[in-house]
Design a protein that fits this description.
The protein is α/β, with parallel strands linked by helices. The protein has two domains: 3-93 and 106-204, Spore Coat Polysaccharide Biosynthesis Protein SpsA, Chain A (Alpha-Beta Complex); 215-277, no CATH class. Helix content is 35%, strand content 23%. The chain has helices spanning 13-27, 48-55, 70-80, 160-165, 179-189, 223-238, 243-259, 263-277; strands at residues 3-9, 34-41, 60-63, 85-89, 93-95, 112-118, 125-130, 133-138, 146-147, 155-159, 193-204. Strands 1, 2, 3, 4, 5, 6, 9, 10 and 11 form a nine-stranded mixed beta sheet that branches. Strands 7-8 form a two-stranded antiparallel ribbon. It is globular, with a radius of gyration of 19 Å. It starts with a strand and ends with a helix.
Length: 279
Protein backbone atom coordinates (compact mmCIF):
# COMPACT_ATOMS: atom_id res chain seq x y z
CA UNK A 1 0.00 0.00 0.00
CA UNK A 2 1.20 3.50 -0.82
CA UNK A 3 1.14 6.35 1.67
CA UNK A 4 0.10 9.98 1.83
CA UNK A 5 1.56 12.05 4.67
CA UNK A 6 -0.57 14.82 6.15
CA UNK A 7 1.04 17.56 8.25
CA UNK A 8 -1.27 19.70 10.37
CA UNK A 9 -0.41 23.40 10.49
CA UNK A 10 -1.64 26.48 12.31
CA UNK A 11 0.58 29.56 12.39
CA UNK A 12 3.52 27.23 11.93
CA UNK A 13 5.85 29.14 9.64
CA UNK A 14 8.89 28.72 11.89
CA UNK A 15 8.26 25.03 12.51
CA UNK A 16 7.64 24.39 8.82
CA UNK A 17 11.05 25.76 7.94
CA UNK A 18 12.63 23.78 10.75
CA UNK A 19 10.94 20.39 10.35
CA UNK A 20 9.64 19.93 6.79
CA UNK A 21 13.15 19.15 5.44
CA UNK A 22 13.20 16.02 7.64
CA UNK A 23 9.89 14.93 6.14
CA UNK A 24 11.16 15.58 2.62
CA UNK A 25 14.15 13.34 3.38
CA UNK A 26 11.76 10.59 4.51
CA UNK A 27 9.69 11.22 1.37
CA UNK A 28 12.71 10.36 -0.76
CA UNK A 29 13.35 7.11 1.11
CA UNK A 30 11.64 4.34 -0.92
CA UNK A 31 11.09 2.12 2.13
CA UNK A 32 8.38 4.54 3.33
CA UNK A 33 6.33 4.23 0.11
CA UNK A 34 5.28 7.89 0.41
CA UNK A 35 3.65 9.12 -2.78
CA UNK A 36 2.44 12.55 -1.71
CA UNK A 37 2.91 15.15 1.00
CA UNK A 38 -0.04 17.26 2.17
CA UNK A 39 -0.11 20.21 4.55
CA UNK A 40 -3.50 21.22 5.92
CA UNK A 41 -3.35 24.82 7.08
CA UNK A 42 -6.04 25.82 9.57
CA UNK A 43 -6.41 29.49 8.56
CA UNK A 44 -2.94 30.62 9.68
CA UNK A 45 -2.44 34.37 9.99
CA UNK A 46 1.31 34.09 9.39
CA UNK A 47 2.95 33.31 6.04
CA UNK A 48 2.88 29.52 6.38
CA UNK A 49 1.09 28.96 3.07
CA UNK A 50 3.22 31.48 1.17
CA UNK A 51 6.38 29.86 2.49
CA UNK A 52 5.25 26.38 1.45
CA UNK A 53 4.27 27.45 -2.05
CA UNK A 54 7.63 29.11 -2.55
CA UNK A 55 9.97 26.57 -0.94
CA UNK A 56 8.11 23.27 -1.45
CA UNK A 57 5.88 23.61 -4.52
CA UNK A 58 5.46 19.82 -4.77
CA UNK A 59 3.55 19.72 -1.48
CA UNK A 60 -0.23 19.69 -1.78
CA UNK A 61 -1.75 22.46 0.35
CA UNK A 62 -5.26 22.39 1.79
CA UNK A 63 -6.00 25.85 3.22
CA UNK A 64 -8.98 26.34 5.50
CA UNK A 65 -10.63 29.74 5.20
CA UNK A 66 -11.67 29.63 8.85
CA UNK A 67 -9.87 28.25 11.89
CA UNK A 68 -11.77 25.04 12.65
CA UNK A 69 -9.64 22.92 14.96
CA UNK A 70 -7.73 19.67 14.98
CA UNK A 71 -10.42 17.12 14.13
CA UNK A 72 -11.49 19.14 11.11
CA UNK A 73 -7.88 19.54 9.95
CA UNK A 74 -7.22 15.80 10.11
CA UNK A 75 -10.52 14.98 8.40
CA UNK A 76 -9.65 17.42 5.59
CA UNK A 77 -6.25 15.81 5.16
CA UNK A 78 -7.63 12.28 4.96
CA UNK A 79 -10.26 13.38 2.46
CA UNK A 80 -7.63 14.99 0.23
CA UNK A 81 -5.26 12.00 0.33
CA UNK A 82 -4.98 9.86 -2.80
CA UNK A 83 -3.50 6.75 -1.19
CA UNK A 84 -4.73 3.78 0.84
CA UNK A 85 -2.71 4.71 3.93
CA UNK A 86 -2.39 8.16 5.47
CA UNK A 87 0.19 9.15 8.07
CA UNK A 88 -0.71 12.20 10.14
CA UNK A 89 2.08 14.20 11.76
CA UNK A 90 1.82 17.20 14.00
CA UNK A 91 4.01 20.06 12.89
CA UNK A 92 6.38 19.47 15.81
CA UNK A 93 6.81 15.74 15.11
CA UNK A 94 10.04 14.99 13.25
CA UNK A 95 10.23 11.60 11.51
CA UNK A 96 13.29 9.44 11.20
CA UNK A 97 14.34 8.77 7.63
CA UNK A 98 12.72 5.29 7.50
CA UNK A 99 9.92 5.91 10.01
CA UNK A 100 7.24 4.03 8.05
CA UNK A 101 9.24 0.96 7.05
CA UNK A 102 8.30 -1.13 10.09
CA UNK A 103 4.67 0.02 10.21
CA UNK A 104 3.52 -0.74 6.67
CA UNK A 105 3.64 -4.57 6.82
CA UNK A 106 1.08 -4.56 9.65
CA UNK A 107 -1.60 -3.45 7.21
CA UNK A 108 -1.43 -6.80 5.47
CA UNK A 109 -3.74 -7.77 8.34
CA UNK A 110 -7.12 -6.45 7.23
CA UNK A 111 -8.20 -5.83 10.83
CA UNK A 112 -5.45 -3.24 11.47
CA UNK A 113 -6.76 0.33 11.35
CA UNK A 114 -3.81 2.33 12.68
CA UNK A 115 -0.18 2.00 13.67
CA UNK A 116 1.19 4.54 16.13
CA UNK A 117 4.82 5.60 16.01
CA UNK A 118 7.35 5.42 18.81
CA UNK A 119 8.01 8.94 20.12
CA UNK A 120 10.73 7.62 22.41
CA UNK A 121 9.16 8.51 25.75
CA UNK A 122 6.00 6.48 26.25
CA UNK A 123 4.85 3.02 25.30
CA UNK A 124 1.39 2.10 23.99
CA UNK A 125 -1.61 3.82 25.58
CA UNK A 126 -4.17 1.81 27.51
CA UNK A 127 -7.63 2.78 28.72
CA UNK A 128 -8.98 2.07 32.17
CA UNK A 129 -11.86 3.23 34.34
CA UNK A 130 -10.66 4.98 37.47
CA UNK A 131 -12.79 6.81 40.05
CA UNK A 132 -15.69 6.93 37.60
CA UNK A 133 -13.70 8.42 34.69
CA UNK A 134 -12.23 6.86 31.57
CA UNK A 135 -8.48 7.40 31.76
CA UNK A 136 -5.67 6.83 29.26
CA UNK A 137 -2.33 5.68 30.65
CA UNK A 138 0.94 4.79 28.95
CA UNK A 139 2.47 1.46 29.78
CA UNK A 140 6.27 1.14 30.04
CA UNK A 141 8.35 1.22 26.89
CA UNK A 142 8.77 -2.11 25.15
CA UNK A 143 10.66 -3.42 22.15
CA UNK A 144 7.64 -5.44 20.98
CA UNK A 145 4.73 -4.49 18.74
CA UNK A 146 1.75 -3.98 21.04
CA UNK A 147 -1.95 -3.33 20.89
CA UNK A 148 -2.83 0.23 21.88
CA UNK A 149 -6.09 1.95 22.78
CA UNK A 150 -4.67 5.27 21.64
CA UNK A 151 -3.84 5.78 17.96
CA UNK A 152 -1.97 9.05 18.44
CA UNK A 153 -3.65 11.55 16.10
CA UNK A 154 -0.45 13.46 15.43
CA UNK A 155 1.93 10.53 15.14
CA UNK A 156 0.32 7.53 13.39
CA UNK A 157 -0.52 5.99 10.04
CA UNK A 158 -4.16 5.11 9.31
CA UNK A 159 -6.08 3.06 6.77
CA UNK A 160 -8.13 5.61 4.84
CA UNK A 161 -11.00 3.29 4.02
CA UNK A 162 -11.60 2.47 7.68
CA UNK A 163 -11.22 6.13 8.71
CA UNK A 164 -14.00 7.02 6.29
CA UNK A 165 -16.12 4.10 7.48
CA UNK A 166 -15.80 5.42 11.04
CA UNK A 167 -16.54 8.96 9.77
CA UNK A 168 -13.18 10.21 10.96
CA UNK A 169 -12.45 12.23 14.05
CA UNK A 170 -15.56 13.45 15.82
CA UNK A 171 -15.74 17.24 15.76
CA UNK A 172 -17.52 17.38 19.11
CA UNK A 173 -13.98 17.55 20.50
CA UNK A 174 -13.05 20.74 18.66
CA UNK A 175 -10.75 22.54 18.93
CA UNK A 176 -8.52 19.69 20.23
CA UNK A 177 -7.86 16.87 22.75
CA UNK A 178 -9.27 13.33 23.02
CA UNK A 179 -10.51 13.12 19.41
CA UNK A 180 -7.93 10.43 18.61
CA UNK A 181 -8.72 8.35 21.69
CA UNK A 182 -12.40 8.49 20.77
CA UNK A 183 -11.51 7.34 17.25
CA UNK A 184 -9.52 4.40 18.62
CA UNK A 185 -12.41 3.34 20.84
CA UNK A 186 -14.84 3.42 17.93
CA UNK A 187 -12.40 1.45 15.77
CA UNK A 188 -12.14 -1.22 18.47
CA UNK A 189 -15.92 -1.49 18.78
CA UNK A 190 -16.08 -1.93 15.00
CA UNK A 191 -13.65 -4.86 15.17
CA UNK A 192 -10.40 -3.13 14.17
CA UNK A 193 -7.01 -3.07 15.89
CA UNK A 194 -4.61 -0.23 16.63
CA UNK A 195 -0.95 -1.09 17.10
CA UNK A 196 2.10 0.61 18.58
CA UNK A 197 5.28 -0.01 16.57
CA UNK A 198 8.58 0.48 18.47
CA UNK A 199 10.69 0.57 15.31
CA UNK A 200 8.73 3.38 13.65
CA UNK A 201 10.56 6.23 15.29
CA UNK A 202 9.74 9.93 15.40
CA UNK A 203 10.74 12.74 17.71
CA UNK A 204 7.97 14.84 19.23
CA UNK A 205 9.56 18.14 20.13
CA UNK A 206 6.44 19.61 21.78
CA UNK A 207 6.75 22.98 20.10
CA UNK A 208 3.09 23.29 19.12
CA UNK A 209 1.65 26.70 18.26
CA UNK A 210 -1.31 26.38 20.63
CA UNK A 211 -1.32 29.09 23.27
CA UNK A 212 -3.89 30.36 25.74
CA UNK A 213 -4.15 33.80 24.13
CA UNK A 214 -5.98 32.24 21.19
CA UNK A 215 -8.67 30.70 23.42
CA UNK A 216 -9.76 33.51 25.69
CA UNK A 217 -13.31 33.11 24.37
CA UNK A 218 -13.74 30.18 26.75
CA UNK A 219 -13.85 32.62 29.64
CA UNK A 220 -11.32 30.81 31.78
CA UNK A 221 -7.92 31.72 33.20
CA UNK A 222 -6.56 28.43 31.85
CA UNK A 223 -8.59 27.90 28.66
CA UNK A 224 -6.47 25.05 27.28
CA UNK A 225 -6.79 23.10 30.52
CA UNK A 226 -10.55 23.77 30.46
CA UNK A 227 -10.83 22.37 26.92
CA UNK A 228 -8.82 19.30 27.94
CA UNK A 229 -10.95 18.57 31.00
CA UNK A 230 -14.19 19.30 29.14
CA UNK A 231 -13.33 16.84 26.39
CA UNK A 232 -12.17 14.24 28.91
CA UNK A 233 -15.61 14.46 30.49
CA UNK A 234 -17.34 14.14 27.11
CA UNK A 235 -15.21 11.10 26.25
CA UNK A 236 -16.21 9.51 29.55
CA UNK A 237 -19.91 10.18 28.98
CA UNK A 238 -19.84 8.70 25.49
CA UNK A 239 -18.43 5.42 26.76
CA UNK A 240 -20.65 4.74 29.77
CA UNK A 241 -22.42 1.57 28.70
CA UNK A 242 -23.73 0.07 31.92
CA UNK A 243 -25.65 1.09 35.01
CA UNK A 244 -22.63 0.27 37.17
CA UNK A 245 -20.36 2.59 35.20
CA UNK A 246 -22.99 5.32 35.33
CA UNK A 247 -23.31 5.08 39.11
CA UNK A 248 -19.53 5.05 39.54
CA UNK A 249 -19.21 8.08 37.29
CA UNK A 250 -21.91 10.06 39.10
CA UNK A 251 -20.22 9.30 42.40
CA UNK A 252 -16.81 10.30 41.02
CA UNK A 253 -18.27 13.45 39.49
CA UNK A 254 -19.92 14.41 42.77
CA UNK A 255 -16.68 13.89 44.70
CA UNK A 256 -14.70 15.94 42.19
CA UNK A 257 -17.15 18.84 42.30
CA UNK A 258 -17.16 18.82 46.11
CA UNK A 259 -13.39 18.65 46.47
CA UNK A 260 -12.72 21.02 43.56
CA UNK A 261 -15.68 23.43 43.24
CA UNK A 262 -14.13 25.07 40.15
CA UNK A 263 -14.71 21.78 38.35
CA UNK A 264 -18.35 22.89 38.06
CA UNK A 265 -17.17 25.21 35.28
CA UNK A 266 -15.82 22.16 33.44
CA UNK A 267 -19.09 20.32 33.96
CA UNK A 268 -21.23 23.16 32.62
CA UNK A 269 -18.87 23.62 29.66
CA UNK A 270 -19.11 19.91 28.79
CA UNK A 271 -22.90 19.90 29.12
CA UNK A 272 -23.19 22.95 26.89
CA UNK A 273 -20.93 21.41 24.22
CA UNK A 274 -22.66 18.03 24.41
CA UNK A 275 -26.14 19.50 24.10
CA UNK A 276 -25.20 21.95 21.34
CA UNK A 277 -23.62 19.30 19.13
CA UNK A 278 -26.38 16.73 19.66
CA UNK A 279 -29.35 19.02 19.08
Amino acid sequence: MDVSVVVTCWNGRILLEKNIPFLVKAFKNPSNKIKELIVVDDASVDDSVVFLKKEFPFIKIIAHKDNLGYSAVCNSGIKAADNDLVAILNLDVVPKEDFLRASLPHFEDGTVFAVTFNEGKYGPGKLKWQNGFLEIVSVPMTDKVSLTDWPNGGSSVFKKQVWEKLRGMDEIYLPFYFEDIDLGIRAGKAGYKCLWEPDSKVEHKHEATINKENFRKYGHKKPIELIKQRNHLILTWRNIDSGKLLLNHLLGLFKKCISHPKYMFVLFSALKRYITVNQ
